[in-house]
Amino acid sequence: MRKLGLDIGSVRIGIALSDALGIIASAYETYSRQNTNADYEHIANICKELGVDKIIIGLPKNMDGTTGERAEYSLQFGKELYTYLPSGTSIDYIDERLTTVQAERMLISHDVRRDKRKQIIDKIAATIILQTYLDKNNP
Predict the structure, then answer these.
(1) CA–CA dist 38, 66 (Å, integer)
(2) pTM for the whole thing?
């Protein structure tokens, strides 16, 4: 079964998807948020259509490791999203400190223009979140 990675922002949600073996993460899409119900339904539909059994949500902890307002928001988002998901789909969280910075640096090093970076940075961050999870959980 596939895994789905989410980088949750207030305007956009970066979405990444693993291969069927759960080894390689790939950028899937940058979703422009509408309202919470539409957002949850969109993600749930992806899970149904693509056979996702686990969602990995990036948890933006503070640099000292504590959970702040953004991390609490991500936890609440996951809790509410869970009620929309197909039966058997679970949610896990992974520390995502600096993933957006890492994605930005990667795009800059590949000479991606600023306007293009803004369009894809969230799905790149989601890919980093998901790949980190896959690497950590696949021996």
Answers:
(1) 30
(2) 0.86
